[in-house]
Amino acid sequence: PLCRGLMTSQEARTVLDMTERATPVPNGPPDIEGFSPLPSHVPETFSAKLSRKFGENPFVPVGCLVTAGVLTYGLISFKQGKTRQSQLLMRARILSQGFTVVAILVGVVAAAMKPRH
Question: For 23-59, how does the pLDDT look when each residue is reduced to its tens digit (9 = 90+)?
Fold first, then answer.
């Protein structure tokens, strides 16, 4: 008896016969009308992508900058011991974050509603 996991010569011939009868795999990607599997555009630079995204939905980067600014100013106020001002700025940060999230959602909905060309 052979060890478990090894094939007999008959089983090996059967597997070889099955692989010879299998249909050949086509070379290259399938042809789909109107679809190209290869990227047809040149890579965007960071500044080009930033300006394109800012043009599509300007409220998101503005909201991010406002949130970062309010957070920074709030942390500076906290460090200086101005607790009342720090608390107000943290509340303003929450509002600006909410504005940014709403701007992102509006941008997603607008992109989904836009007709594709």
Answer: 666 676 667 777 766 666 778 889 988 888 888 888 8
116: three-class secondary structure by DSSP: coil
- Residue from 72, 64, 48 nearest 104 by CA: 64
Q: Which are the contacts of 110, defined by CB distance < 8 A and separation ≥ 6?
A: 57
Contact 77, 89 (CB under 8 A): yes
- Number of Cβ atoms within 10 Å of the Cβ of 54: 13
pTM strictly above 0.85: no
The secondary structure of the chain in percent helix, strand, coil, rounded to multiples of 5, reads 65, 0, 35
Write down the residue that tokens 């949130």 correspond to: 67
In the chain, where does DSSP find H-type helix? 9-21, 46-56, 59-79, 83-113
Do 64 and 100 meet the contact criterion of CB atoms below 8 Å apart?
yes
* Residue among 69, 42, 64 nearest 53 (CA): 64
